[in-house]
Design goal:
Elements (H helix, E strand, L loop, with lengths): L7 H5 L1 E2 H23 L2 H5 L7 H6 L15 H20 L3 H18 L6 H13 L10 H4 L10 E2 L2 H20 L11 H6 L7 H6 L3 H21 L6 H22 L5 H10 L4 H10 L8 E5 L4 H13 L7 E3 L4 H10 L3 E4 L2 E4 H11 L4 H7 L2 H16 L1 H11 L11 H20 L10 H10 L15 E11 L4 E3 L4 E2 L17 H13 L7 H17 L6 E12 L8 E11 L3
Parallel strand pairs: 3-4
Antiparallel strand pairs: 1-2, 3-5, 5-6, 7-8, 7-10, 8-9, 10-11
Length: 595
Amino acid sequence: MAVRLASYRTVFGIDLRTLALFRVLLSAWILIDLGMRARDLLAHYTDFGVLPRAVQIEHLYVTTWSFHLANGSAWFQAALFILAGLVAVALMFGWHTRLMTVLSWALLLSLQNRNTFILSGEDNLALLLLFWAIFLPLGARYSVDAALTRSSPFPENAYFSIATAALLIQGMSMYFFSALLKTHPIWVSEGTAVYYALQLDYLVTPFALWFRQFQDLMTGLTYYVYLLELIGPILIFSPLFHRTCRTIFMLAFISMHLAFAVFLEIGFFPFISIIMNLAFMPGWMWDRIAAFLPSRARAPVSIWFDRGCDFCEKTCNLLTVFLFLPKTPVRPAQDEPEIGKELEARNSWVLTIGDERFFKFEALGRLVSAAPLFFPLGWLMRRSFLQKGGDIFYDWVGRNRSLFSRVTAFCLAWQKTPPRYGALTQILAALSLLFVTLQNVSTLPALGVSLPSQFVAVRQAFGLYQNWTMFAPYPEMTSPWPVIEGELADGTMVDVYNGNIGLADFNKPDVVSLTYANYRWRKFLTNLEDQTYEDRPQVLALSYARFLCRSWTADAPEQAGLSNFVIFFQIERTPPPGDTKDVETRQVWTHDCHA
């Protein structure tokens, strides 16, 4: 029997329903990221915080830009956060999808450039995914745009373009180049990389502290991760046994990131990586899901609206899209004289299920009950205690539908010319793919590729930098945590880092990773500690120390002011398997708040 090879369109294409899922999850990540960052808005993004704008600007490349650097006040940063959140919500629902994608990318790049010392691989990957999303029809399915497009330019779910290939290749480049950078013997000949990674107490979870007693398992996981990153990115594009290979390796990468989330305190890197891997979700999976979740109506469903009511037709289309009832016909009631008469007599839209007819709020409840996912809500809407209020609300909307038509004509206009992703878009995607591939190749030390300044200028302007050194060439060998001891103006000794009265505790905490407020604080403080090994002005230590002076006064105005303090780091070095760890106390900065 001949073995069939999958076509290049299948191998490098993405189902439009998968792109819709990608859009929703990417928007959710943006909202989560904004929420997590907002906890430290004052400390990380204002001139009051650890990195005033003047300090950050000194560390930026000449072509790097940021809206957030225009003003150092909290209200300005909060306004940009809110704007980014609103744009992300619009992107999630697919309203003016392409514009919202561009704005989300620009606002995220701007936010990241405001404080580059708290960034990690998570931020790099998310920005790249948003960049590639600009070239893709994310709003072709399950979106406001899809509901307001009378004739879709994408009749089939299968979709192939240079941009789909670029997104998939970008995702696998992260693993492949990370594997090529893992050149130390602990990855291949020794098999101890996972051992060293899980010895980083400042980074690991309580579960990892328990798990690292299993040396043989850690050795096996070392080889598993290395081989998966090296071979998986190739086999996931295999045209031979394509469906099987794609499914196996997509799930393997997802399971690896779930394990990372269990073992390591690395923020939302596993989440954004899983989103990237779900871009490989093939169309046949959606077909299986659709077969498993059919419409729950016992008979054919149709929706009838009042011809000439623009708002009514748009509402019906939106309902079919977001209730996952794409095959439900939406028709003018006047096309069927009998139904048209009932619509006028009852002043209501009409829902027909077989020969049954429903009106007003009851019709909405019945339609939701037919939806494959939202039917429990439909059951609740059909309860008598909601029906009366629902009909009152429906009648109010009906009396004001001319107003709603004018509003929706402005914010929910019909899309007569949907965005197209033609030759120019694909040429730009191809050039961008070539650009980032060269960037990835340049990170391999053995090749000795040097990038010209013009290349770097473009890279920084568009946020296309990538260097996938995930535990490469080997995991770190030291685990730091801060201890800051100081004195108030009245002579009282204080633990400045924890905000407590009394001497600081230099003993090792039970869970070192919990000494950091969150992973962005850990990134900033470990960057600070790393910088103190270099013979240059310690701008991070100075900026952080000044912030501590300001924040102590702001947080405890009733106490004497902070006079002076010393920043220490406890450095725990990872020994070879079987040896005992040792801890060194490093004094990295002494500060006088009155100097």
